[in-house]
Design goal:
The protein is of the alpha/beta class. The chain is built from 16 helices and 17 strands.
């Protein structure tokens, strides 16, 4: 069970040295409890205490990562059944199946789709996360060639026919820290030794909850904790769904540590119809699959699944935001209007759409307001004259326009004089309150 801030505070030095970045040890303890900091930031905690705190405050579902650098994939790390209780930590990873039984042309086409089907939504980059590389025709050389082709492209899950093939595969891709998949109870010791050798996680085949408990207990006895349950269901969606729901409930509610591991499921085995696969994936993603493997990727199915994932795993306590910056709409130049707004995602999309409707190219300046809307941000002091002026000075907009006119939202018209006082070289123009009035307003623009 996760420790509270007060419980963590008992282990801290209580010197209030602020070397961790916060003023007091109590505040630091609260940050650790909330997942906003870790014990490594305190230079006065012993390694033994760090290990004790890490074990005691670990979430009911262990976090496991595979892949390296910007291709790293994190799964698990969950502590609740419903996101409104706190939040979900790591989104369900989506993988693409590559098999040695498929032709080279088929696998090449899949690899291209993996790279090309990338999207951006509300400042988030969306796409599939890993390749699931499987040797299902007992041809070791084809398997190794396929691994060599994709090992640097994305995170990998390696599913070999046997332990010997797994060892050969790891000589090629072991440095990429793949998720090694396919371990059964009978050959668990060999797979654990191989996973330890390359410091990578291991997916063990779990045919039932009792089987999962048994193999997890054996792995823990071998000193190995970075497990993933590869849920074998005989191609039945309902069996997979029952497993992951019961496992999450047991881990979170009953504190069953033997079931507190991420899960890997296979919509690619549930149906030959791709549309059905993605429908199954959406069901499993909601309750509570950690990773899913699809037989192929097509935009008309992948994009809806990715947007559903974005909605499910967005922190409900934090509004959806756009990154702070200057967005060019149309063929904007030095004479184009400079329009200011907040970084609440809904506001961004509504206002940018109206700017596009006006057919007037513009520089759309987004200021970080922590996801608050214009009027709410102003009331909270996050969209005041001094903060706006400070951002305008460092934003670089002065290098993009020559007219020095700044259009602000009509809802903060009361700040216009104060902004001009803070920015004496600029003229502040009050825009409309309603975004629908922007097209007519911008058509009257004169630099």
């Amino acid at each position: 069970m996760a420790l509270s801030g007060i419980e963590i505070f008992k282990y801290l030095p209580k010197t209030n040295c602020a070397e961790c970045g916060v003023a007091t040890c109590l505040a630091f303890a609260m940050n650790i409890a909330a997942g906003k900091a870790d014990t490594s930031k305190c230079p006065y905690i012993s390694e033994q205490v760090k290990e004790t705190l890490a074990e005691a405050s670990a979430p009911p579902v262990r976090q496991v990562s595979f892949g390296i650098g910007d291709k790293e994939v994190k799964i698990g790390g969950e502590s609740v059944l419903f996101r409104h209780e706190r939040r979900f930590e790591n989104q369900t990873a989506i993988g693409l199946l590559l098999t040695t039984s498929a032709t080279r042309e088929v696998n090449d086409a899949k690899i291209v789709s993996f790279k090309e089907l990338r999207y951006e939504r509300a400042g988030n980059k969306l796409g599939a996360d890993f390749f699931f590389v499987e040797n299902n025709n007992c041809n070791s050389q084809d398997f190794l060639d396929l691994l060599a082709k994709v090992k640097d492209e994305a995170a990998l899950v390696i599913c070999a026919d046997n332990l010997q093939d797994a060892k050969e595969a790891m000589t090629i891709a072991g440095q990429q820290k793949p998720l090694l998949c396919g371990a059964l109870e009978d050959d668990l010791e060999g797979y654990v030794a191989l996973a330890k050798q390359y410091s990578c996680p291991l997916a063990v085949v779990a045919l039932s909850l009792s089987c999962a408990r048994k193999i997890a207990q054996k792995a823990l006895a071998l000193g190995f904790k970075d497990l993933v349950f590869s849920v074998g269901t005989g191609g039945l969606l309902n069996k997979g769904w029952e497993f992951i729901v019961e496992a999450r409930n047991a881990a979170v509610k009953d504190k069953d540590k033997l079931l507190g591991f991420p899960t890997l499921l296979y919509p690619c085995a549930f149906s030959k119809e791709l549309s059905c696969q993605f429908l199954d994936a959406s069901i499993l993603m909601a309750k509570y699959a950690s990773a899913l493997v699809m037989s192929e990727l097509k935009g008309e199915f992948l994009y809806p699944l990715l947007t559903a994932r974005l909605n499910i795993f967005t922190d409900p306590q934090r509004p959806l935001t756009m990154p702070q910056g200057i967005y060019t709409i149309g063929d904007a130049n030095e004479n184009s209007p400079a329009v200011l707004s907040c970084n609440f995602a809904l506001t961004y999309f509504i206002v940018s759409a109206e700017i596009e409707n006006s057919t007037v190219p513009a520089h759309f300046i987004i200021k970080d307001t922590e996801g608050l809307s214009v009027l709410t941000a102003w009331a909270a002091g996050k969209f005041s004259a001094d903060s706006i002026a400070a951002y305008i000075k460092k934003s670089g907009i002065a290098d993009k326009v020559t007219h020095k006119k700044l259009i602000i939202p009509g809802y903060i018209s009361m700040e216009s004089a104060n902004i001009e006082e803070e920015l004496p070289d600029w003229q502040v123009v009050v825009g409309p309150q309603d975004a629908a009035a922007l097209p007519a307003f911008l058509k009257q623009w004169r630099p």
